[in-house]
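Good morning C.,

I know you're traveling, so I'll keep this short. The sequence:
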Amino acid sequence: MNFKVGDKVVVIAGSDKGKEGKIIKTLKNDNRVVVEGVHMVKKHQKPNGQESGGIVEVEAPIHASNVMIVDPKTKKGTRIGHTTDKNGKKIRITKKSDSKLD
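The tokens, ready to paste straight into the viewer:
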């Protein structure tokens, strides 16, 4: 998976198509990501010592193929490529503008 926590992404498919947000969590084994403010579901929460119970809204994971990274220059969705810098370290770049992501 080419995504990391903190990447800004745009949803390209599904009911939340067009929404943007940051990646909160990546689930590498399931090839899914959790994006803040996207795919909100209602969860029934039992009360515990600190919080009261009730129905809360939380972000649910969506498949990684349904999101695209936002290019910092063009502010649009783009694919991710890999290359090496002058020190031989592997870095991520955007395909639209060849700008560095890391």
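Safe travels,
E.
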